[in-house]
Amino acid sequence: MTAIRAIDFRRWQASDLTNVRKSHHTGPVEWADVGERVRESRLAAGMSQAELASAVGLERTKIAKIESGGRQIDALELAKLAAALKVPMGHFLREQPAVLSRRTSLVDDTDSALSRDSYRLEAKLMAWLDDLRQVISLDLLKPRKAVVYDRTVTDPQDAREAALWLRSRHGLGQEPIRTLMAECERAGQYVLVSDLPGDGASLMDGDFGVSVVSRLADPGRRRATAAHELGHLVLGDEYSTDLGVSTSREDRERVIDAFAAEFLLPSGVLEQVTKSDLRGELIKLSAVFRTSWSLTVRQAGHVGLLDGGRMTKWFSDAPTRAELRDAVGWVPQPDLEGVRVPPAYAHAVMEALRQHFVTPARAVELMHGEIEIEDLPEVETGSGS
Questions:
Q1: Looking at residues 270-285, what average pLDDT do you find?
Q2: Is the entire prediction scored with pTM above 0.85?
Q3: Which of 70, 96, 122 is the last residue in one of the domains?
């Protein structure tokens, strides 16, 4: 446990958690809410009440009472629960955001691997937001204001126009995106690449956005997920726009997917492709623009290069590594893999270390696996938080 977390622990211990307030909320903690988050976290971890009780040294009946809101939790028990369930302590205390893309509810009779992965990603998302807030509070990072499209978006074509608008705003034209992390940061969305399974999740916090993308997916899917979550930001959240009000969740996601596809591989690029060696040309585009084969094929279908039948056939006929090498002479370096956090945030963390605002151990935590303790420079002894 780092010194920063120890300070929080002492604060919770001193107040016995009675008056701890939720983030962005003026009321005291409701124990029923805390209990519900314990229950959700337990389900996400795939644990029974008995297994959790054994892990934290409590009776199963006490876990049941905690989950029902019938028993308060002291700071030590909270720390043990957080450790057993692999979530930050703050996860049990903060108010969940009203707008969170891809949120999946967990209930005892319908939980699944997919919903558990989604929940863990969302817990990581909230912890990532806490890390950003800490660095921002030190005046070492001034988050960019989110770029929001100011026109109505109701269908995939509207979303494609929004993607081209953002490309124009960023001066990208129809060129490949070098690093999606940097483009998201420019648009006011701060991406964390996580080792958790799943796809991604995102939310708005005031004027900027945060998102988490799983590193475990293949490189093309990672980029598609990051662009998808960026779409939630740029098009406005899925619950407050005309898009969110007038369409089903499935239709909303289809619109956001259209934004992501157009942002990563513009239709105008495919319109210049000749049909004489169509597969070879698409393989080259997939390599140069570092998109998944399925996204490339969908874009080819969108501009009329492939009909429905050929698209279905080509989806299952992904290019091999040898074909990629033959097409462009190299295999592109995977995006969103080695770099886990945005560049400006990483610089702010290192500055916080130099100014003794954080300990080396906390700096490593804030970098989320991008560096190890031995990678850090030596700093003069100070009173790190």
A1: 92
A2: no
A3: 96
